[in-house]
Automatic annotation (TrEMBL):
Protein name: DNA-binding protein
InterPro entries in the cross-refs: DNA_bp_PD1, PPC_dom
Residues annotated as domain PPC: 8-145
Superkingdom, taxonomy of origin: Bacteria
Amino acid sequence: MNFAQINETDGQRTYVVVLDAKEEAFSTLSNFATTYEMTAASVTAIGAFEKATVGWFDIASRSYRKIPVAEQCEVLSLLGDIAAGDDGKASLHLHAVLGLKDGSTRGGHFLDGIVYPTLEVTIIETPAYLRRRHRKDLGIALIEL
């Protein structure tokens, strides 16, 4: 992974993070956000994965139904946000639309992905503090304003 802060205006910082082949995207981005103590940011990315997993949240079971994508796929859209989690560390909430070789797509909550050949990520951090709290009634963590 390589990264650069490319702008800072009125406390709002913009980073470009480029992940290398074979890196696991979700954990790498989580570690980056935790290292830089991000508590309020938006995330966008494009690139490709050699394999990935997205999920569909089943409210009845309060869990994600995994949708594996076991082939090379284009990251047509990866977007979401970063807030502080219950543990105080950066908590990412990302969704992805992945393009397959036949032109079909798979999409949902982004769970994991092995980068191949690259993933280009833009993170715009704001000088604010957002808190994501686990909601037992729903089984997920949501931003609490």
